[in-house]
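DATA SHEET
Item: assembly model
Revision: 1
Owner: S.N.
Input lines:
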Amino acid sequence: GEDVEQSLFLSVREGDSSVINCTYTDSSSTYLYWYKQEPGAGLQLLTYIFSNMDMKQDQRLTVLLNKKDKHLSLRIADTQTGDSAIYFCAESLLSSNTGKLIFGQGTTLQVKP
Amino acid sequence: DTEVTQTPKHLVMGMTNKKSLKCEQHMGHRAMYWYKQKAKKPPELMFVYSYEKLSINESVPSRFSPECPNSSLLNLHLHALQPEDSALYLCASSPPVSGEAFFGQGTRLTVV
């Protein structure tokens, strides 16, 4: 079945690194995504990784993918108070030709000054 | 232009009203989506349009009626809603192949 799971809450100090984890069950995933949602706003696409890649880095963001364990992580270096938000992991499925996304429950990141 | 624009940003409607939500994108994406999001929950897919044709309806009640007039526009017509339909309604669009969805800022709907 299709399922994406995330821990619900993470608290870090400003300047530290944050690591948000996600597991998924469907091995036919093609792309995996990280979205950020600030209060009252829509979802902002942060980054995505194709399922045949292991790692992708984009400035302060590093995405690691372990296909064997179906585990995805998002590392935010030098976390700032502006990074406080809900982070959603999502997968799109090879079996779906319409780009249907399966979302995790979201991880609330709290950054303390 | 990487924007998906939704109007209105906020909407309060009575249970007997008819209203419409609008969504526009000019990225040339041929897939467009409506999602519903309750507070502190992930978005739930409602409808998918692919090349202006409805390809997925996730068993959404008929009081929600989508429309895709052209490749840039997506509407959601609302009629006889219930208070439990109050939520953030998000529109998104995506290109083929990579399928990364770009979301609008949403319409905050309150049904009274």
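QC remark: Chain A touches chain B through 25 residues (CB under 8 Å).
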